[in-house]
Structures are given as C-alpha cells and as structure tokens.
Amino acid sequence: MNDHLMIRPDGRTELRMSRRLPHPPEKVWRAVTEPGHLKQWFPAELVIDGDRVRYGFGPDGRVLELDPPRVFAHSWGDDELRWEIRPDGDGSLLTLTHVFGDRFGAASFASGWHTCMAALAALLDGRPLPRPGDLGRLHEDYVAILGLTSGELSGGAVRLERQLTRPAGEVWRALEGGRAEPGSPPPAPFTAAGVTAGPVSRAEPGKILEYATGGGTVRWELGEGTGHGARLTLTGPGDAATLAAWRARVEQLAEALLDAG
User: Fold this and answer.
1) Measured between alpha carbons, how far is 253 from 249 in angstroms, rounded to an integer?
2) Domain ends where: 127, 144, 161?
3) What pTM, to 2 d.p., does this model score?
4) pLDDT tens digit string along 176-202?
C-alpha cells in the first residue's frame, strides 16, 4: 500500500494511491473502463460516452484524458480522478490520483477507494469480491496515515477540524450533550486538560456548544461531513499545549465512537 496526501499549488487536495496488480495493463485497463467490470467494484455506475462520463445520478462528468491502456482521467462533480496504469514486471502498477477541495474528507475518500481497489484486485484475480470490513477503523487508520490530526495554532487561537465516523446525533450523545444547559458547566466530554471551562453560553442539540474560558470562547460545532459521519470543528483560545490537549480529547472521542459503533 502506497498512499499519500498533498496540497496542490491551487489549494486543492490531492490523494494518491498506488497498488501493484499481477495482471497486464490491457487487462487492468478493461477493468477500469468497461461498464461490465466497473459495476462490480466502482462506487457508482460509470459509462464513457464520447467525451462525457455518465454516473447514473447527478450531473455528467467529462473525460479529461483517455490514452489506452495507460491513462483514464475524468471529472466527477468538482473532483478529478486519474487512473494511470504502468507496466511493472509481469504485472501492472495502478495509481489513482483524486483531486478535491475538502482536505479533511480525505480519510473518507481513502477508506472508500481502498475498499474499491481491494474489490478490483479480487475481480482481476477471479476471486469472490471481499465483504466490506470495519470501515470505521479503516477511516481512523487513514486519519493517522494521511496526517489529519494536527490542528492549527494562529494568533493565540486553536482550531481542529475532524471528520468523524458517526452521525451528529450519536456524537452529541457520546459527548453527553443532553446534559448541556446554558448557565451550567459544560459536560466533561466537552472539556480538555488545562482548559478552565466557564458556564455554557450556547447549546444547540446535535449542532453547537459554546462556553467561556479566561481567554475567550470554546466552540464545538457538528456539521455535515464527508461519508456517513459528522464533521467536527473545534475552536478556542490557547497555545501549543492547549492545542495538544484538544487534539488528545478529539482523538479520544473518535476512538470512543468506534467502540460505540
């Protein structure tokens, strides 16, 4: 497995995943371009129609490059996908490059593509397609592999954005949000070591919790994410030690959600 994440000069995110397949490029090419093969492993219907790509739902994509049996590149909404096949000994090296705008959705994309490419490998080998494994755990593995846990520190303020594996309602329950009331101390799961928590100033179930600290306001916000889970954005005042404390707290939450699932 050889998977990397980078930020392009235009600010978009590029995910690159490579897999060696013990099959010639021509056979791999058929599997990544012909509808009869694609429907067994690709996450949507895909049909190449001239310079258009039809997905069975939503707007059509566009063929960006088509060079059999080496390169098939196409758009999908605002994203771009590039499938590149190179000879590698008696087999092939297949590299997927996915370009998108939502950096913190990268682990969801990567875990999905990992599963798809495992199914593709099985199809090429003539094996039964594997059943999906623990997608939540795979997602969390990719959070670590792709370096999506660091957070930001700027001008005395910390910010963490984290894709989670469970819907907002379940996350809110895991945080004991049902006990959050304006004027009362926040439930313990909304706090971190070294952060002095004042009373709750705002609580919108399943969405937002805010409370004051000595240096400003801590805000937990749950919004729509990439995949099946909510996107957590956590902001507040602090320094490097505060950022580390919040990062540890968010990772504890992410692990607890896996156990709850």
Assistant:
1) 6
2) 144
3) 0.93
4) 999 999 999 999 999 999 999 999 999
